[in-house]
């Protein structure tokens, strides 16, 4: 009798639960239907009574863009031209300036400049905020329209006005668009007898093949350690990230999982075969603020599974998965359908991606996790390296020369005076020649000089006859006139290095430029130091090594 009553109770509770769920679902869909009716009413009223006759196609596109812009930065409406641009990008060849763009807090920013592209050569950096394109405010356009304005035919020019953290004034960059041939593995080779290096620029359909070739070649060269450089790699296909992990993580290990509202969105990806890279090969992954999406999947999995050490700066923080849904033959909508999680269960997306007021039953994420060996790691806001390395900032004068394109233009102008790059490196008069070249250019504007010039104008309006004020102003102007020469001596090493980078690029292409840059790369040198010291490498993977995100 008791069992029968228990069964009746359980059955009753199940029925109540199903009815409750059905009622809540019907209530939810009823709200959706009411909202749709309201939108249609407003839409019809505008078209029938607005003072101007509205273009249905243009107005609808603007309306949909307004809806998607209230969601995360990656959900967007795509018309035929925008889909065409995306297809060009995935094929690895397009006309533009070579930057990966992001949209956060209603601002367009540079996620990463691409190796060898006009933007990187001109000195545009990860984190730069784009204010204007050809003097048009980007806030006047949708993200996709603004991005399309930056792309264009090879040889045409575009001006980007950017705001850089720490600078008081916007900076203009006049760029010439080029054909951007995006090669996934920018460079692969041995840095020493035992340490191999791979620079991965993006994650695409070609990544698996290129990385397999790179790993195989380094192993043939008897590498016992490999540095995987994902700095300024904005990501790409998640499947490509899984393929790379499949090459270095032992079989049947969970690598990354996705979670969303639909059945198709919930999935865990495992390593499917014996790894190409043996477990005894030490690994270091380099990241920075330009490392996003698929880069963070690789870095996060390597960290969580204690497969290697992570060095550099905190990553970008993109943990959202998008799916494209075709609406008709010309239009589609790209929607964020899931969030991805690295093996420890960490969700690494920055938390500001959507207004929480728009969400029902928001999921609260844990913040503390552990790696396979028991190291404590913290979730959200990107991947924090095991060894955090502050980025080296350009010196005052070097920065001005770089922004004005003096290093690149000097190298172009003087390339034909040398037969090989080694001749450039052996030229003891290189800095003197550069100084003569600079003297023929307009003076650079050092920090504070523009403020001084504005101040002088205001003072002269008040009183242009005061001798003491004139003397003070002359002394300040004299200070600035001598400062450039003084700074050029102080910064001579940095200036020489940047000159060599430009010559290396002209003589030996992007690969040669990168090889030259590695010589003075402090993050790479630290990775080498840790990898050659086995006890230090193992200590970095110890449970006592806490990693905070």
Description of the structure:
With 549 residues, the chain is α+β, with helices and mostly antiparallel strands. Among the domains are: 2-54; 93-181, Pdz3 Domain (Roll), CATH 2.30.42.10; 396-526, no CATH class. It has helices at residues 2-49, 56-68, 80-91, 118-122, 143-150, 207-220, 238-248, 294-304, 396-403, 406-414, 421-426, 430-439, 449-462, 467-490, 492-519, 522-532, 534-540, and strands spanning 76-78, 93-96, 99-104, 107-113, 129-133, 136-137, 157-163, 171-176, 178-181, 185-190, 195-200, 225-229, 254-260, 267-270, 282-287, 309-312, 320-326, 332-341, 368-370, 376-378, 387-388. Strands 3, 4, 5, 6, 7 and 8 form a six-stranded antiparallel beta sheet that branches. It has a six-stranded mixed beta sheet with strand order 10-11-12-15-16-21, sandwiched between helices. Helix 8 links the parallel strand 15 (282-287) and strand 16 (309-312). Helix 6 packs parallel to helix 7 (238-248) and helix 10 packs across helix 15 (492-519). The longest helix is centred in the N-terminal third of the chain and has 48 residues, at 2-49. The N and C termini lie far apart (57 Å). Mean pLDDT is 85; it is low at 8-14 and 87-92.
Task: From the structure above, extract its key features.
alpha+beta, 6-stranded antiparallel β-sheet, 549 residues, Pdz3 Domain
Quick structural gist:
By secondary structure, the chain is an alpha+beta fold. Helix content is 44%, strand content 19%.
């Amino acid at each position: 009798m008791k069992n029968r009553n228990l069964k009746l109770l359980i059955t009753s509770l199940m029925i109540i639960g199903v009815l409750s769920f059905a009622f809540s679902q019907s209530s939810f869909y009823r709200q959706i239907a009411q909202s749709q009716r309201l939108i249609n009413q407003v839409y019809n009223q505008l078209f029938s009574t607005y003072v101007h006759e509205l273009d249905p196609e243009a107005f609808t596109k603007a309306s949909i863009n307004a809806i998607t812009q209230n969601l995360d930065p990656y959900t967007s409406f795509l018309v035929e031209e925008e889909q065409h641009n995306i297809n060009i990008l995935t094929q690895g060849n397009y006309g533009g300036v070579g930057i990966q763009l992001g949209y956060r807090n209603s601002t367009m920013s540079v996620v990463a400049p691409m190796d060898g592209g006009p933007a990187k050569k001109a000195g545009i950096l990860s984190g730069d905020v784009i204010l204007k394109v050809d003097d048009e405010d980007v806030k006047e356009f949708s993200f996709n329209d603004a991005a399309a304005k930056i792309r264009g035919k090879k040889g045409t020019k575009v001006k980007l006005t950017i705001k850089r953290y720490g600078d008081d004034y916007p900076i203009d960059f006049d760029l010439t668009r080029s054909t951007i041939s995006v090669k996934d593995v920018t460079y692969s080779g041995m840095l020493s007898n035992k340490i191999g290096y791979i620079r991965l620029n993006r994650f695409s359909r070609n990544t698996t093949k290129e990385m397999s070739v790179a790993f195989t070649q380094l192993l043939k060269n008897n590498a016992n350690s490999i540095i995987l450089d994902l700095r300024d790699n904005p990501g790409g296909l998640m499947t490509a990230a899984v393929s790379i992990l499949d090459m270095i993580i032992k079989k049947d290990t969970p690598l990354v999982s996705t979670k969303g509202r639909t059945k198709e969105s919930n999935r865990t990806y495992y390593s499917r075969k014996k790894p190409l890279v043996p477990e005894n090969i030490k690994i270091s992954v380099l990241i920075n603020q330009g490392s996003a999406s698929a880069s963070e999947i690789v870095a996060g999995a390597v960290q969580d599974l204690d497969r290697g050490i992570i060095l550099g700066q905190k990553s970008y923080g993109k943990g959202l998965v998008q799916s494209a849904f075709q609406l008709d033959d010309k239009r589609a909508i790209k929607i964020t359908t899931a969030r991805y999680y690295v093996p420890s269960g960490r969700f690494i997306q920055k938390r500001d991606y959507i207004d929480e007021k728009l969400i029902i039953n928001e999921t609260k994420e844990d913040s503390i996790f552990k790696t396979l060996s028991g190291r404590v790691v913290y979730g959200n806001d990107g991947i924090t390296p095991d060894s955090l390395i502050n980025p080296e900032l350009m010196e005052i004068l070097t920065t001005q020369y770089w922004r004005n394109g003096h290093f690149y233009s000097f190298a172009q102008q003087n390339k034909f005076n040398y037969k090989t790059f080694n001749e450039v490196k052996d030229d003891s008069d290189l800095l003197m020649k550069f100084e003569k070249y600079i003297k023929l250019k307009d003076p650079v504007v050092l920090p504070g000089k523009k403020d001084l010039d504005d101040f002088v104008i205001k003072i002269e309006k008040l009183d242009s006859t005061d001798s003491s004020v004139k003397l003070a102003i002359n002394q300040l102007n004299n200070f600035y006139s001598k400062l450039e020469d003084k700074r050029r001596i102080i910064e001579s090493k940095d200036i020489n290095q940047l000159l060599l980078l430009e010559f290396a690029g002209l003589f030996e292409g992007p690969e040669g430029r990168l090889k030259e840059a590695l010589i003075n790369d402090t993050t790479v040198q630290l990775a080498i130091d840790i990898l050659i010291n086995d006890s230090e490498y193992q200590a970095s993977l110890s449970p006592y090594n806490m990693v905070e995100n």
